[in-house]
Structures are given as structure tokens and as C-alpha cells.
Amino acid sequence: MKRLILFTLVFALFFSLAGAQNFVPQPFLKGQLHLRTGVRKAVGAFQRRQHFDAQYYRLFFKIDLDHRYIQAHMHGRFQNLQDTLSLITLDFTSQLKIDSVSGAVASYVQDGSFLDLKLKHTYQKGDTFSVDVYYSGNPEVVGSPSFVFDYLPNEDLYVWTLSEPYGARDWWPCKDTPADKADSVDVVVTVPENCLVASNGILINTAEGPEPGLKTFYWHEGYPIATYLVSLVAGPLWHFQDYYHYSLSDSMLLDYYVFPEAYAAAQVVFKEVPDYLDALSYFYGPYPFLKEKYGMAQFGWGGGMEHQTITSVGGVYPTWRFLYVHELGHQWFGDKVTCASWKDIWLNEGFATYSEALYAQWAGFFDLPPGMKAYHAYMDELVYTDDGTIIIPDTSDFSKIFSGIVYHKGAWVLHMLRHVIGDSAFFASLRAYLDDSRWTYGSVTTQDFIQTCERISGKNLQTFFDQWLNYPFYPKYEYKWKVFESRKGNVQIGVTIRQTQKQTLYVMPLDIRFVFADSSDTTISVENNQFTQDYTFVLKEEPVQILLDPDHWVLSENREETPATYTQVPEIYRIYPNPSHEGVWIELRHLLPVKVTLNIYSVLGQKVRTLNQQQNQFYLHTYYWDGKNDRGEPVASGVYFVRTAAEMYPPQQKKIVILR
Asked: Which domains does the chain have, with CATH numbers?
């Protein structure tokens, strides 16, 4: 689930940044939500859930808004996966009352968050069977947003759902795991006739309800879908539509349901959605549910949730564009391919967060135009430096499942991988991962992604993923450099890189950028695989500055160990051309916090000219003497001396020859 915003703390920030069109919402951790999977039979129930496959659900809901009450019916079709099967266990909350069961069910036991169904017959491997569960009550759970009776800003009642990660069981009996997607789901909802219902897939019919004053909506999701992605928002919402033209002759419905107060704003803000679709389709391939729709439905949670084909959003603001992009990114990563276990939630959240950075590359970020500078600026907003591992060992703790590490560091893993294997292999890997017939529209693991990247790139990436997924923190680099030998056309440079972190050694390619006096530069990539490592480079000229990982492709801290000679005195480093027929360039090296001027003297000790700095780059300071005196007259041929002048520092002097 994406980027949730705690209204009481963050809303003031939203409005203070109203002029910042690219504000990035920060994730709100769901640690206050309660795990409702039960304890009594957790192991046994898990084992029994592995014995059958969920193929289809048809869900009927009659919603009484005034009394916060539902009457419901789940019809499910399942297939036996073991030799014989006579008992299945579904996930289902105990606070809803079962009215009756039918189909293949002989009897039931409802205990905690589990529903044991004894079947009328013993089924053989491959057999299919259907069960029907009729139930009623108030599905609301204190502290959980799984099913909520809520109020619109105008005080009208409405209903919304948010089932990630374990909430589907709070409002319908199911095999509640992302590892088993149903092939399709129908959601049939009866509400007062002044209400609308938004849900997954295609609205195939609306009809009068079973009683006067009621109306029934028939939604069909024809793509495989995980239980936590099944959604409904029902109430007196306002509705409008648009179309996404994904080719010259084809289009897809864009379907929007919002609070009445947000209707006018939504018609403006959501005009950007086709551009979001263009961007992510460019990077990932076609939108995965083109045969159905993409839509957004406003709900009462302070952020967004990537319900399949119908994202739920807590607000309609132009500053939320990157949240909308994040939720759209989930339609590929999270909905088309879904993490098989919540321990691999980074496969959903890290990828969706990275989609935001790709949109910055596509559309620009703040004042930066589209391109890599905007992309890097966005990634710098996502830097994650806290403790923790991306693979979540304890999925019973909501605060760990939805911690910032899976969003931000997860995105950084992808950012670093892009540099490690290169753009071509990186984007080819993403598409191959999405389209692999073994799991497309199904469930995936981290290892599935790793193996895909290795196959496409031809590189062994186990070390890369291990160090970034299974270890906390990040590398801290210190580097220094010196000139071993400097001859015309042949400069030998030594660079030493040390990793100073106390955690694991990181094996990463590192870019080293050499900057020269004329502001030109060259970048060389090295493999860094030791705690202390020396490198030697031969260049055509001596650099004035060296930068480690200048484009920030590695989640790290970098610090140069500055040579002491650059900090003691203002050193006259180079004068060129010398001799000169006209003017000369003079370069000083220092890191002094004081102004340094240069004085030109004749051989008789007379001051000819005072020079001020023309430009500087880090510790290199450049001056220019045009060969004239303070009156603007050309000096005569001869020997002159340039001398530094800096308060509290001894002067340095060198000779200049002028030839007329």
C-alpha cells in the first residue's frame, strides 16, 4: 500500500507547499493497525490453505448505511491440490454472523479469524467444488480500515474498504493470501438508489434493487486478482469519465468517483492521468488492464491504495501527482505481479516508489526539466539511511511491513541496479519480469526478480541483492588522491578508496570523475570490492578535482580526505603560457577561508598590477594577467614576479616572462 498521509500532522505541510507542484507525500506507517489472523490454529490453518486453490469468488453485498449493517453472500469455486480433501479452512472474522452455508459444505466451525468448512464429499486431486456462505452484521473492526462506514464532508454516509494486508477476511470469507489469486471476481452491491458503487474491473450492469428505493451494481474483474486488491466505495459520490487513447485506434475508459466537494478539482487534476499512463507504459510496457479500465475513487484514508483498476485516493490535489503516479505504478508492480509473501513487499512498494522517480525523469521535477537531472533530484529525495532490512522477517508486525525502508530503500535498490547493469538491461529486465508466463498476473518472489535480472543482464547479481536486501545501513566511502608523475601528455594519478562503515563490505561499481582546469571532465568506473583499495590512472592532463560517485548512483556517504598541502598556504600551482607574448593564466591551490589577491612586481620590486580571482572550482582558484599595468598600459618585455597576498599567511612567489 502506498504512501499514507497522517492528516493531523501532515495536512498543514500540504497547504504550506501548495505552490510546490511536485510535493512528495511521505509514508505513514500502519503500525497502529491490529493483526487479526488469530493465533489458535495459525499453523494448521496455513497448512490447510495450501491444499486447495481459489479460482473464483462472487460477492453479494446489501448495504444498510443508516444501520451500519450488511447482508452478504460469498460464492467461491476452489480446486483440490492434494490426493484427498474433505475439509478446508477460509479466513473470516468472527464478528460477522454466519446465517447459513450451502454448496459443497456439510457443516462449519467459526473460530477466531478462521472458518473451517467440512465438505459433503471427499474430493480427489484436480476436482473442483463450490461453497456458499451467507452472513450478516457490521464488518467494521476497531483500528482497521478494512471496511468502514464513514461520512462525506457534507455528512452523507458512505462505505469504503482497504484490505491490505490482512483485511479482506474482515468482510468476506476467502483464502486471504497474496500467493493465491482468484482467476476472476464478481462484486455485486445493493445500495440506496441515490448512491453509486465503484469497484474492480468493468461495470457490466446496473438494475433496480430487490426492494423499492434500492439499486444494484454488477462489477466484474476478469483478470486474476489478490484478495487484498478487491475493493468497493459506495455512497452518494459524483462520477465522471474520460478516455486514454493508447493507440491511434484504441482507447481505455478512465473512471472517476469523488466526493461532491472535490468534483470540480478532480476534473482538472485528473486530466494529467493520461500522461502518467504514457510515462509508465513507456518504461514498463502497456498498462496491464487495458481491456477494463483505470480509475480512481475517493475514500476516507489519508493517502492512496492501489486497488486493481480502481485506485482509492484520500484527496484530490495537484500536489499529489507523485502519489497518483505511485498508485498507478502498482498496477504493474503489485497488481499484475504481486508479492507472494508480505516479506517481499518491496516488490510492490519499492517498485511503485521508483515509478515516481521515472515520472520525474519523464515530466520534470520542481524547476528541473525532464531528464536525468530531474530523475536524480527525485531519487535524492528518497534517500534512506535508517536501520533495517528490506526483506521483512516478521510479517505479523504491520509497522515493519510498511516501514519506510521498503518504499525508499526499495526504490534505491532499483536505482542502483539500473547503474550496475545499464539502462538497456535494466528496463528489459523489468519488462521480462512483468511478462514472464510463469507468474504474469500471478504471484512472485524476490528470487524470481533476481533470476530475471541475471538472465537478461548476463551478470551474477547475488552479491548485489544480498548486501542491499539483507543488511542494514549503507557504505561510507573516504577517498584521497595524489599525482605520482606529471609529464606533458602523461599524468599518473593514484586514488585510494576506503569503506569505513562497521557493517558488511559492499561490492559496487563506483564512478570517479576527474575535473580539469578548463572545466572539462572524464568519468571512469571502477569495481570496489575491498575495505581499502588503491587505483592508478594515466590521464593526458592533471586534474584539479576528483569526485566519487558524482551522480549519486550508490546509496552512500562520500568524503574526500583533502591533501594537507591544499590547506596550509595559497600555493601558486601553475602559470601558463610562460613565457607569454600577451597575457598569462595563474592558478592557485588552497582551501583557505580568506580572500587571496595576486600582486605583479617588476625585477626592481615595483608593483605593476593587483589581480583578483576570476573563478574557482573547489580548491583551484584562477587569475588572469593581461600583461598590462594598473594604468592599462602594456608592460615591457622582461622578467616579472607574481606574489600571493593573504592575511596571516606567508606569501608565495613565482616568475613570469613577458616577450614582446
From this structure: 1-32+245-472 (1.10.390.10), 37-236 (2.60.40.1730), 476-561 (2.60.40.1840), 566-658 (2.60.40.1930)
